[in-house]
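User: ok so my PI wants both of these folded by tonight, can you help

Assistant: No problem, let's get them done. Here's the first:
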Amino acid sequence: MNYRVLPLTKLTEHFARLPGIGKKSAQRLAFHVLRMPEEEAKAFAESILEAREKIGYCEVCKNITDAPRCAICCDETRDRSTICVVEDPRDVIAIERTKEYNGLYHVLGGLISPMDGVGPESLFIKELLLRLEDAEVKEVIMATNPTVEGEATAMYISRLLKPLGVIVSRLAYGIPVGGNLEYADEVTLYRAIEGRSRM
């Protein structure tokens, strides 16, 4: 017998489309929503719709925001001579959690990936170049992930930026805290040696 409750099936399928959510987790989430008080379920649904309607891109850095400019671009205490270039708004959140960086950001909205049909024109690279017309910017930190696509994107952008007279730097990558050298691959070890600092 094929037992299905259509609204529950639809809800489960929608949860299963979320990244990192398998079929069983999606079903657990769907049942959790069914057990919510009606007001809480409505508030949950409304928060999804509100996020979709009100969140857009910052007109300056392309980070997500619910205003024309994000809070970081509006913050006059930030160091305006440095721009950290990242792939995704989640990277901004990760760097901000460290409380060590006080400059500005530029979110590319992805990485160059010819296999996936993503070329430089699909990213917010032109917008970055426009920002560099401001003589206040002295350094651009490439903080894309250390993947083939991340490295290719960083190299492509650094070639565009070098003639503009700004310093282009790359995040140092290396051995994670608690990691063992014997298990590190050659690229990670190379990055660790290359990014070494004085003690």
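One down. Here's the second:
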Amino acid sequence: MGSAAAAAIERHPHLATPCRDGYVRVDMHSHTMFSGDSTTTLDEIIESVVEAGIDVLCVTDHNAIEGAVRLQRELEGDGICRVIVGEEVRTHTGEIIGLFLTERISFGDNAVDTATQIRKQGGVMYVPHPFDPMRRNLTEASLIELTDLGLVDAIEAHNSKTSLQSLNKRAREFGESHGLALGAGSDAHVPHALGSAFVEMPDFDGPTDFLAKLGEGVLVGHHWDMHRPWSARIVPSVTEEY
């Protein structure tokens, strides 16, 4: 084991347990410098994915998919990790995530219209960090409305940046009581957060199979929200081609 992988296990001890045969580790929520609130470069993402042994990374930048598209090309091209193109979209009543996107979703609409846009692309509608008042979480009334309309596919039952585990527990209970698939993600805004949470689930092929297999998954993770250690660095322009 290399020193980088050992350091990842020290940060996130559950990484020491091997993934079961036929299963993959899927981080359903992560961010790059294209988010605007993160300075994590694509090279840093690639390095941290290797260290943490993530098999599938959902890149869900705020109101952007360019970083996800570029990482999909680089990580899959090198056979390092599969990438699901996603987007964390701001709506009038809070944020929702679209996964398996082919086009950027417009932001600032109401939640029903946004969820409908995701579904029209054949995407998966995922609700991040519900019930967490410290985030731009979807309001409970909006979450119930979307669920009643059948527009929610999965809910984030473990978010590593959510400090109160009672909020993650509440999300899990809501998902279970409404028959929703349960997801987990690091919500990484710094490279070392990758590996802090993921779903260990049977391998899948495409969004429909992903949702079917997600129900067989196990949520793995812990609370981890440490800041990036300071160092002098230059962050590339988000308009720059890699």
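The chain has seven helices and nine strands. The chain has a mean pLDDT of 94. Good luck tonight!
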